[in-house]
Amino acid sequence: MAPALRRMCCPSEEQYVESLFSSIASRYDLINSVLSLGLHKAWRRFAVSLARLSPGNSTLDVCCGTGDFALELAKAVGSTGTVIAIDFSEPMLEIARQKADRAGLSQIDFVKADACDLPFADDSFDCAVVGFGLRNIAEFGRAIAELSRVVKPGGRVISLEIFGIRTTWASAIWKLYFNVAGPWVARFLRGDPQAYTYLPRSVESFATPEEMARQFETQGLENVRWYKLACGAVCVHLGTKPLTKSAPPCVSSEKQDQQNFKGFERE
Ligand SMILES: C[S@@+](CC[C@H](N)C(=O)[O-])C[C@H]1O[C@@H](n2cnc3c(N)ncnc32)[C@H](O)[C@@H]1O
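^ thats the input. predicted complex w/ S-adenosylmethionine below
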């Protein structure tokens, strides 16, 4: 069955996800850093470098949470560029705004919006990213379609997501770490342990990296590929919006990406 159809979408599921993230907003960054062993910042930097942005570019961060991806995008596009960051959790957005203020990055605009119904015109952004967001969206294919719609022809859509380790012997260690350590760490750091039992469940019921790549293609993106981080537990997917229907696929930059990031495994 197609991954987009595997999970049912209903308003109460969206409300559950929204209230869950709102309830952990104040502890999200700390718990994120502990659970990812501090690696999440490097993963985002890697993903932003794949966007190949220039000063003055316009970018979109979907499911921005506490804004770490948006802050990285803002550094890449500089003070003449723009970053719009959306999320449906107001407490997450509030923390993101405070972080941007503290960093003096006034080019970021944080907006409350739904990833499946983006309030932007077609072909608006040079690049759109989503970090650890698609897994939380029942109809994640629809969110990818929205990302693809609002990116300019030739622009890139990038997703950073947890997939877990499902096939090798390391999956047992992975499960122990996420199912047991996650909620325990959350309890210790006074987050909501329930939220961190949701995390492994959401990873287990989510698409595989291959299914995600197919969704990118189904939503009209081309030159789709992905990079494995953290032994494949985390992947960055990348796709390009075609220049025009008749134009040849945009493949010119792939070699350069590979040269720039030799340390990462590419599929
Ligand atoms: C795991 S956090 C990721 C935050 C951030 N992107 C990061 O890299 O740390 C997922 C975020 O997605 C948001 N979210 C989930 N579903 C959404 C939707 N349909 N529309 C907008 N935001 C959504 C949640 O509120 C939450 O802030």
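Strands lie at 58-62, 82-87, 108-112, 125-131, 151-162, 222-229, 234-240, 265-266.
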